[in-house]
Amino acid sequence: MNELIEKINASIEAFKADAELQAEKGNKAAGTRARKASLELEKLLKEFRKVSLEASKN
Fold first, then answer.
1. In whole angstroms, how large is the CA radius of gyration of the chain?
2. CA dihedral defined by 36, 28, 25, 19, rounded to 10 degrees?
3. Are 48 and 8 in contact (CB under 8 A)?
4. Residue 29 confidence (pLDDT)
5. I need a surface site. Which of 10, 29, 40, 58 has the fewest CB within 10 A?
C-alpha cells in the first residue's frame, strides 16, 4: 500500500506542476500532460480505494 501512496503523491506533484504551467504561462503541452496525469491519478485513486477496503476488512 505504501508503494501505491508514493505513486499517487508523485502523480499529484506532476499534475500540479503541469497545471500551474498551463494556468500561469498558457503552456499547451503542459495542459496535455496535466490531463494525462489526471487520468493516471484517477486510476491510482480507484486502486487505492480497492486496496484500502481490502485492508479494512482484514
1. 14
2. -10
3. yes
4. 97
5. 58
Of 31, 25, 15, 29, which Cα lies nearest the Cα of 7? 15
> What's the CA gap between 53 and 58, in Å, rounded?
9
**pLDDT tens-digit profile of 1-33?**
999 999 999 999 999 999 999 999 999 999 999
> Closest by alpha carbon to 7, among 58, 42, 55?
42
Through-space distance between the first and last CA atoms of the chain, rounded to whole angstroms? 14
Model pLDDT, residue 58 = 81
